[in-house]
Design brief:
Layout: E1 8-12, E2 16-20, E3 32-37, E4 40-44, H1 50-53, H2 55-71, E5 79-83, E6 91-94, E7 97-101, H3 102-108, H4 110-113, H5 119-134, H6 143-178
Parallel strand pairs: 4-5, 5-7
Antiparallel strand pairs: 1-2, 3-4, 6-7
Helix pairs in contact: 5-6
Bound molecules: zinc ion (ZN).
Length: 179
Amino acid sequence: MNACRSNSRGRIGKNKYIILNHCVIIPENLLREARTYKGIKVYNTQSTNLFHTYSDQLTRFVNILIRLAEVVQLKLEDIHVYYYDDSSKVAFNKDKALYFNFKSYLELHDDECKFGNICNAMSYWFIMVCHELAHNFALEHNATHEYYFTSYVMAYMSSIFNAIFNTINIISSIINFVN
Ligand SMILES: [Zn+2]
């Protein structure tokens, strides 16, 4: 299965179209497996050593994905992290394995997460996880994809709320402990 192999057109309103390119599959030859971190395989497309350059940031992103895997009851081996310089390529689904762009996380959420504010990141990446899971049933962004995406969001809505709430409590208790 090759979900979102090429850019798909999504219709908004009657006549307006946008290009939905955030699920474009990164070619295999560009992804070099760096290593497995906390059970999640991490891939790179650059010469940068992610684990040296972005050690703390990568840990925060992987921790978020681990919590989301628990929420949607996914195995960690079904989740992959990749670093791709074009951060508009946020995620993709390849052969029912989900891939998430660490560069997108860096640009969108790490500035908040490093201060313990994980609400926006958890919400955003939860939606991304549900979106990519829906590609298990539909390659394109069509009505079938929309149906499964909505179903996943509804099915796990209370779980993601609990996960965000519990994570905030854990972070608060650490901050209080340190202070
Ligand atoms: Zn998609």
